[in-house]
């Protein structure tokens, strides 16, 4: 057979329809000749049926454009107000991210700029108002920077002076155990407080044994005081004022500053030092109390000027109290 005849035969075979294989066995498909090794045709999955009620979109149909939700003002807030920006700014940002056209991006940036400018104007006004009103200026209460160190030093001097006066009428009970490492660490702190302020410290041993370091050698064994006072942990400290004043301070290890502060607070609560003495121990120039507690106005004026005048009048008439009248030098 010539080459032309072979090409013609191949062309005819290629154009002939493929036989239907179905489930026929190989020996039943002898008409395939030497094409018996041809692979089975791939199985084409049937398309899933469309869910009922959903129209198909053809090439001649276009999906309806999505409507943009209107920028409704929450609770009737004015457009471009802080409430309006809080409710709508994120929506314009998402719109610019999803569809970053020049218009959408510029629109979001303008709204963001408006919000930043509002915040900047508020910050400037905030600073001016605070500087012009001593009841709102925090430097009236406590200076900043290096001057705070001066205030801390003066407050420390006043604290030691008030504690020295308190030591003339009160003392400390120190409950310990000889095998308690925290009691051994607390003892030197109590000794320093005693030397600095004159506080008398009576050590009471729960196990009737001395401390291993030799502190408070003149201790007393517990005679039931710990049980009556509810001691559950050591070291335990109580502020005692004869004949019957006993105030708990702590049942745990305290630093010197914490111990001093707790002694002052306990003595104030017990009425053994007055508010003026206690205030001098705090590192504050003045303690302005703008909040007057339960004596709040029964009706709040609608006019902001009237409301502000009411607040200022109340503060000036005694709602705020300057408790520090001692010099700083």
UniProtKB/TrEMBL annotation:
Instruction: Output the Gene3D superfamilies linked to this UniProt entry.
Output: Glutaredoxin
- Report residue spans for region: Disordered: 38-79
Q: Which domain of life is it from?
A: Bacteria
Stretches of Pro residues bias are at 39-54
InterPro entries recorded: T4SS_TraF-like, Thioredoxin-like_sf, TraF/TrbB
Enumerate the Pfam families for this protein. Answer: TraF (PF13728)
Task: Give the range the annotation lists for the signal sequence.
Answer: none
Full protein name: TraF-like protein
Q: Which organism is it from?
A: Thiorhodococcus drewsii AZ1
């Amino acid at each position: 057979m010539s080459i032309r005849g072979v090409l013609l035969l191949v062309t005819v075979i290629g154009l002939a329809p493929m036989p239907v294989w179905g489930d026929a066995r190989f020996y039943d498909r002898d008409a395939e000749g030497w094409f018996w090794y041809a692979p089975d045709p791939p199985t084409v999955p049937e398309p899933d049926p469309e869910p009922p009620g959903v129209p198909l979109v053809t090439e001649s149909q276009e999906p309806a454009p999505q409507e943009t939700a209107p920028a409704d003002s929450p609770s009737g807030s004015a457009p471009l107000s802080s409430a309006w920006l809080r409710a709508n700014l994120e929506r314009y940002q998402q719109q610019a991210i999803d569809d970053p056209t020049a218009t959408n991006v510029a629109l979001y940036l303008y709204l963001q700029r408006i919000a930043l400018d509002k915040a900047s104007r508020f910050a400037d006004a905030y600073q001016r108002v605070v500087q012009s009103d001593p009841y709102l200026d925090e430097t009236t209460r406590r200076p900043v920077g290096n001057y705070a160190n001066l205030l801390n030093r003066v407050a420390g001097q006043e604290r030691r002076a008030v504690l020295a006066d308190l030591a003339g009428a009160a003392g400390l009970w120190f409950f310990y155990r000889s095998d308690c490492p925290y009691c051994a660490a607390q003892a030197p702190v109590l000794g320093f407080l005693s030397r600095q302020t004159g506080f008398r410290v009576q050590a009471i041993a729960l196990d009737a044994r001395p401390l291993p370091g030799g502190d408070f050698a003149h201790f007393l064994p517990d005679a039931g005081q710990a049980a009556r006072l509810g001691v559950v942990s050591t070291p335990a400290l109580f502020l005692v004022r004869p004949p019957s004043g006993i105030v708990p301070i702590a049942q745990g290890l305290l630093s010197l500053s914490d111990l001093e502060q707790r002694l002052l607070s306990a003595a104030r609560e017990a009425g053994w030092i007055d508010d003026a003495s206690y205030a001098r121990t705090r590192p504050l120039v003045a303690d302005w109390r703008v909040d007057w507690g339960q004596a709040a106005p029964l009706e709040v004026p609608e006019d902001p000027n009237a409301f502000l005048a009411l607040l200022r009048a109340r503060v000036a008439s005694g709602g705020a109290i300057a408790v520090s009248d001692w010099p700083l030098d």
